[in-house]
Amino acid sequence: MKKLTLKDVAKQLGVSTATISNAFNRPDQLSANKRTEILEACKEIGYTGPNRAAQILRKGQSNIVALVLADSLDYMVTDPVANTFIQGVSRVLRENQKHLLLYAGDSDTITDVVDFVDGFICYGAPRNGALSTQLNQQSKPVVTVDFNLEGRPAINIDNEKASYEIAKAALRPGDRAAILGLRLIDSPSTCRIYDSPLLDAESSITYRRLDGYCRALKEMGIEVATDWIWNLPENAGMYAVQAAREVLQSWPRPDVILCMSDIIALELLQCALTMGIDIPGELRITGFDGIEEAARTRPYMATVCQSSVEKGMEAAKLLLSGDNTSMSLPYEIKLGETI
Questions:
Q1: Spatial distance between the Cα atoms of 183 and 87, rounded to a whole number of angstroms
Q2: Which of 42, 55, 59, 299 could pair covalently with 337 via S-S, beta carbons 3.0-4.6 A apart?
Q3: End-to-end CA distance of the chain, in Å?
Q4: Highest-confidence range of 19-28, 75-84, 101-110, by mean pLDDT?
Q5: Could you tell me which of 152, 64, 69 has the C-alpha nearest to residue 115?
């Protein structure tokens, strides 16, 4: 069917285009009865109102906020930390009659949506680094979460300090230590980092976590060579299982393994228990994030708890307020039963 235009509808109903437009956009210009009559007639012929895209371009406001995720949508929506963050953003937007558009961080460009949204929340450094540049070059508001863009407000926790504190609680003098990290190098597979160039070292939260671990290790007089640091390309079980098997079969086996997420730590814990390794007697494990599953697992995971729902809510509030002040949120160290 041909899409009805404003002129088509006005002709069919025998009224002016201004009357149709007023019925949808300026109800105070018509009597209540006349507006109801026009809207009912439009509904009968299948006309839902003036072109929404044209209205957005004309008014410069859509009531839509784009949430740019760090990676592909199919991966991010299955990540429990990202999932609860999205819930927080959605809650605040709904309360303010705004709509949410999820946008993949591995997309080619943001130009497809930049004209049709009121602003951007960027959750994690996008896998396609060009998106960060594009976000900073366009004029609409941007709030970043878990990474920084120059001149834009950010929501973070102190990842370096939190990682330092959980590592310091787990380490003992003379320990052999290993680190299971996330997206430290540009590799599509689980591997040791060796001498590979670091990925997004200035902006990535995983490097702040690595900095915290290294500070604690240095204070304890423990050296960790790069072949005892693993890189996982995604925060997913399949990559974590591979890393867990490799590190647990290494000789000599580490006394403590510092994991950059609870998902990694939980897979490591299950592998260790399956192998009959006593936790924490023979091996100590730390996680990061404080997901619900970490609290349900026995033994309880030692981890850094952050509220991803609160982080999402604060990011949405910051964007809607127009404030340009960055915010550091609190976290809690849970010592659990794995250290």
A1: 24
A2: 299
A3: 67
A4: 101-110
A5: 64
Domains of the chain: 6-59 (1.10.260.40), 64-156 (3.40.50.2300), 159-305 (3.40.50.2300)
Per-residue pLDDT reduced to its tens digit, 194-221: 988 887 766 678 889 999 999 999 999 9
Name the residue with tokens 């990202």. 82
d(CA 258, CA 177): 8
User: How many Cβ atoms are within 10 Å of 173's Cβ, its own excluded?
Assistant: 7
Write the CB contacts of 255 (distance below 8 Å, at least 6 apart in sequence): 172, 175, 176, 177, 283, 284
Query: What pLDDT score does 26 carry?
Result: 85
In this structure, what token pair is assigned to residue 129?
């680094």
Looking at per-residue pLDDT, the higher value among 270 and 2 belongs to 270
| Alpha-carbon gap, residue 152 to 133, rounded angstroms | 12
Kindly tell me the burial class for residue 116, based on how many C-beta atoms sit within 10 Å of its own C-beta (0-12, 13-18, 19 or more).
middle
* pTM as predicted: 0.82
Q: How far is CA 283 from CA 138, 265, 286, 338, in A?
A: 49, 12, 10, 8
Edge-to-edge strands of the sheet including 99-103? 99-103, 64-69, 119-123, 142-145, 154-156, 327-328
pLDDT at 247: 97
pLDDT at position 117: 92
DSSP lists the bridge partners of residue 182 as 232
Provide, rounded to the nearest whole percent, the portion of the chain with pLDDT above 90: 69
